[in-house]
Design goal:
Length: 293
């Protein structure tokens, strides 16, 4: 029988704590849960009031990996859910609002993915995101070059950008916005991706065409669509090692000369949070949100 843990008054059955989920490092399910509890203070604000899609990998990244968007069977009644619009019709999804619901979700072994809008205002985007995805032999080093160009271009329009690693190969650029629909944000993001390609034709690419991507950075603007989700800040990823989508400073991006410089896993995050706090906290401040031109 799974041990029962009480988290802020909620009873949770946490199962298979000794199970190794990341064989390359011996990282266990118990360590996954410990990681999420450790970063809960900075993670929860980025999950709160957003419908969550789970990328689940209960047997580790080498086992079955699948998305869960609807409320999973067996979800406790105290976990907040909400009906959200979807292309194929409304759907009921989970909201991770507090530490008990975070630990319940973490026990499913999951990545967290969220939309660029809040559940109460699905018609208005509150974030813009660029997913910078390198095509080999390009790496996160080249992503940093593109990120620096996009940062300046966004600043020209009065929008302040922040960055995090994807937790995989690339980099995510995010900014808080207001007063625009997801469609309008998508159009604006595409315009900037096209501009980036024109400014750096040997480096940046705004089209998804696979044959064009070797050696370049795909500036994926499409994740701003209302139906799309992006890996939430601080989420673990289903990779061979317990890598994390980790916020980074612009100084780190400017100094990035090798991929290892921006490669963080769960064991790196506690000291980073102690040193930096939440580097993406400004995204949560509505007064700092920019308006699209």
């Amino acid at each position: 029988m799974a041990p029962i843990t009480v988290v802020e008054g909620r009873r949770l059955a946490l199962s298979n704590l000794e199970k190794v989920l990341y064989p390359a490092t011996g990282f266990t399910k118990g360590e996954v849960l410990h990681y999420y509890a450790t970063v809960a203070e900075v993670l929860l604000p980025h999950l709160r009031d957003r419908a969550v899609s789970f990328l689940r990998y209960p047997d580790g990244p080498d086992g079955q990996v699948f998305f869960t968007k609807n409320v999973p069977p067996g979800t406790p009644e105290w976990v907040t859910t909400a009906e959200v619009p979807r292309v194929e019709g409304p759907s009921r999804m989970v909201l991770v609002q507090d530490l008990p619901s975070l630990m319940w979700a973490a026990n499913l072994v999951t990545e967290f993915h969220t939309h660029q809008w809040l559940v109460d205002t699905p018609d208005e985007a509150d974030r813009i995101v660029f997913d910078l995805d390198p095509g080999a032999p390009a790496s996160i080093v080249q992503c940093c070059e593109v990120a620096l160009w996009l940062r300046e271009r966004l600043a020209d329009d009065g929008i302040e950008a922040y960055a995090k690693t994807s937790g995989s190969k690339g980099l995510h650029l995010l900014a808080a916005v207001r007063g625009a629909s997801s469609e309008q944000v998508s159009e604006y993001a595409k315009e900037l991706a096209v501009e980036a390609e024109k400014a750096m034709p040997r480096l940046a690419l705004h089209r998804m065409t696979r044959s064009l991507r070797p050696g370049k950075v795909f500036v994926d603007w499409s994740q701003n669509a209302a139906r799309k989700t992006t890996a939430t800040p601080y989420t673990l990823r289903a990779r061979p090692e317990p890598t994390v989508s980790a916020p980074v400073t612009w100084e780190e991006i400017e100094r990035c000369e090798a991929p290892a410089r921006l490669d963080f896993d769960a064991r790196d995050l506690a000291p980073r949070v102690r040193d930096h706090g939440d580097l993406l906290a400004p995204l949560l401040d509505a007064e700092r949100a920019g308006s699209l031109p």
